[in-house]
Amino acid sequence: MTKESEFTSLLRATGTVLPWERKIYRNRHGRGSRQAMFGIRMPRYRTKSGTFDGMVVAQLKRLNAAWPELLKNVECAVEDVPPSGPVSWETKRAFLSQGFPAEHGSPARIVLYRKPIEQRSRDRLDMQFLIRDEIVARLADLTGRHPEDIDPDWGF
């Protein structure tokens, strides 16, 4: 079972309905009901964070199809910004992602930072390539392989 299907089955089991799956919406003051002003498949409906999450999921699905054993014990998360800036004596570098190895029964984790990746990319295609490169680089760090072995197009 994939992580996405686990998430949707968990939502269904708890009875939680996502806002975009509801049929009727409330108006701004919460008293009356109204329908959505535009379709949920329209570009305006998706937020920047939702679009970014969709790109991450697409890359994880692509890599899982090619290397299911690599992603079996790896969790992937998205945060807006890195936890804190470096102290004055540390070298200043921008984190786009971080990898945390498995320890004490917890699986390995890859954390992508949305804002730095969005700032570095020029357009959506460039953002998809940056996301792909960061995920592949962190997987290579966690597994001890070369990034080119995981994805031959890495770095292009």
Automatic annotation (TrEMBL):
InterPro entries: Zincin_1, Zincin_1_sf
SUPFAM superfamilies: Metalloproteases ('zincins'), catalytic domain
Gene3D superfamilies reported in the protein's UniProt record: 3.30.2010.20
Highest taxon of source: Bacteria
Protein name: Peptidase
Species whose genome carries this gene: Bifidobacterium vansinderenii
Source species taxonomy: Bacteria, Bacillati, Actinomycetota, Actinomycetes, Bifidobacteriales
